[in-house]
Task: inverse folding
């Protein structure tokens, strides 16, 4: 995410601080214990970064997943293409889709056309994994901020039931008219939504709007609020994500 005119000078700083946030999380994380090969079926985790960030900068996240059930997990950290972003005066930066204003609120305007274009690319990555032999039940899409919004859209519009989708500090990037396109199989994909209550970039109210929207779609959502957390990912959130995915891998294997 990035600031509007009022916050324009902090654009570069936010991109830097996000990278620093991830780095600090990893530095504070204990070295994972060695894991033994696990007989469970192969799984796939697709991680979608936030505005102005990159896939490689987020790769250390996978070091939090130390359970043996992740021994056969394939990770993917793609980078968004460079695109002009309206809320940053048209500046070109890594962006999955256009964003009109920062902070994002529950009523912020959506650029649904560019969101749907980005969804197609996410679906192509999922299709490729399924073609390679990975069960849809062992595929998880996760994302932070803009990547979290794209995660939500991609999960809702994918025609098959997946293992799950995890949204961190994200928002609903689609209008309610999109609900009629959600298939019965897509409705069975569970969502984990985590949001910091002190978030000033994607306001907490934008996160709170997620569960009611998903309820209308008939999608199960587990919402977790984190007091004092701003626009970043905490160690606690990642530990929760590990447990959440682990429980679903066990049930779908």
Result:
């Amino acid at each position: 995410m990035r600031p509007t005119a009022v916050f324009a000078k902090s654009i570069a700083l936010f991109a830097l601080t996000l990278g620093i946030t991830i780095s600090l999380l990893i530095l504070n994380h204990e070295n994972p214990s060695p894991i033994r090969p696990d007989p469970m079926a192969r799984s796939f985790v697709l991680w979608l970064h936030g505005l102005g960030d990159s896939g490689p900068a987020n790769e250390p996240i996978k070091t939090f997943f130390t359970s043996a059930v992740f021994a056969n997990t394939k990770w993917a950290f793609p980078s968004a293409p460079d695109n002009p972003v309206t809320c940053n005066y048209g500046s070109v930066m890594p962006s999955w889709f256009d964003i009109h204003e920062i902070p994002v609120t529950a009523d912020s305007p959506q650029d649904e056309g560019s969101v749907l274009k980005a969804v197609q690319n996410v679906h192509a990555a999922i299709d490729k994994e399924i073609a390679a032999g990975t069960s849809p039940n062992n595929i998880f899409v996760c994302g932070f901020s803009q990547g979290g919004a794209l995660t939500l859209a991609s999960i809702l519009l994918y025609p098959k039931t997946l293992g799950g989708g995890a949204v961190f500090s994200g928002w609903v990037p689609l209008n309610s008219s999109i609900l009629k396109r959600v298939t019965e199989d897509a409705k069975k994909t569970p969502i984990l939504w985590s949001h910091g209550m002190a978030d000033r970039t994607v306001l907490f109210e934008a996160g709170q709007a997620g569960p009611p929207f998903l309820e209308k779609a008939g999608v199960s959502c587990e919402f977790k609020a984190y007091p004092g957390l701003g626009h970043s990912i905490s160690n606690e959130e990642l530990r929760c994500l590990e447990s959440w995915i682990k429980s679903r891998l066990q049930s779908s294997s």
About this structure: The beta strands are 43-48, 73-76, 82-85, 91-94, 139-144, 164-168, 191-196, 221-226. Confidence is low (pLDDT under 50) at residues 2-39. The longest strand covers residues 43-48.
